[in-house]
Design goal:
This protein is α/β, with parallel strands linked by helices. It has a single domain, classed as Vaccinia Virus protein VP39 (Rossmann fold), CATH 3.40.50. 41% of the residues lie in helices and 18% in strands.
Length: 255
């Protein structure tokens, strides 16, 4: 797909945007959406996120994914080849949580593939380890903004509902670009700036992203917006389920 035009990029300085470049939400979203990430220093916010996911809400995360149908519908993205894992040997799953995406990665990746599950919360990683019980997974507690990997370490990345815990998407996306090989693919899922996203924000103390602005940010960092995905036709009609996109790092051999 082509890059957004310069005209689209100028939206960030429009009257509807705040100082951070985010679109100003409507009154209902302002009432519902959690704004903690904007009110406190980032380190204090990180401690709060670790507390949330290490506690009761983190313990029911896998169940929430089942009840919301994110887990079964997410598997369809891999089973139907919408995000193709064939030929990928070094896979990084960022924000593994209870292993919701990692479970699909183990099932659909090549037998030779090695998976690294990374999460800010050690307790979530313990839950993922107990749930997955797979021998070809490495578990690591680390921050997305400071990944402990060498440049161009992975040919595949999944980043599921992590960016919403960053004040600026660039902080995490730039690190992901650094550790991705040229031509590596990423499955990116994040919370969108609509009503359902605001409800998610309240539950998990996270922010939301505007779809167009996030695409512009990705492509400015060398992550081409390969295609958008939806969990089901109904999700597409209702614009529900958040942002789900396949990205590709520049420099690889084009299909």
């Amino acid at each position: 797909m082509p890059l957004l035009t310069p005209k689209s990029k100028r939206r960030r300085s429009s009257p509807a945007a705040g100082k951070s470049g985010r679109r100003r939400p409507g009154p209902l979203r302002r009432l519902i959406e959690d704004r903690l990430i904007e009110r406190v220093p980032y380190e204090k916010y990180r401690r709060k996120v670790r507390h949330v996911y290490g506690g009761p809400r983190g313990a029911i995360l896998a169940t929430c994914s089942l009840l919301s149908l994110h887990a079964p519908l997410g598997e369809r993205l891999f089973r139907r080849g919408h995000f193709d894992l064939s030929g990928r040997r070094r896979i990084l799953d960022v924000g593994s949580g209870a292993g919701q995406l990692a479970r699909h990665l183990v099932k659909y990746a090549d037998p030779e593939a090695r998976l690294t599950c990374l999460d800010l919360s050690p307790e979530m990683l313990r839950r993922a380890r107990r749930r997955l019980r797979a021998h070809r997974i490495d578990y690591l507690a680390a921050d997305l903004t400071q990944l402990p990997f060498a440049d161009e370490s992975f040919d595949c990345v999944t980043c599921g509902y992590v960016l919403e815990h960053l004040p600026d998407a660039r902080l995490g996306l730039a690190e992901l670009v650094r550790v991705m090989m040229p031509g590596a693919r990423m499955l990116l899922l994040t919370t969108e700036d609509n009503f359902s996203g605001a409800m998610t924000s309240r539950m998990w103390r996270c922010r939301t992203y505007n779809r167009r602005e996030l695409r512009t940010t990705c492509e400015s960092l060398g992550l081409l917006w390969h295609k958008e995905l939806w969990f089901s036709p109904m999700h597409r009609v209702l614009r529900a389920g958040g942002i789900c996109a396949v990205l590709e790092k520049e420099g690889g051999i084009r299909d």
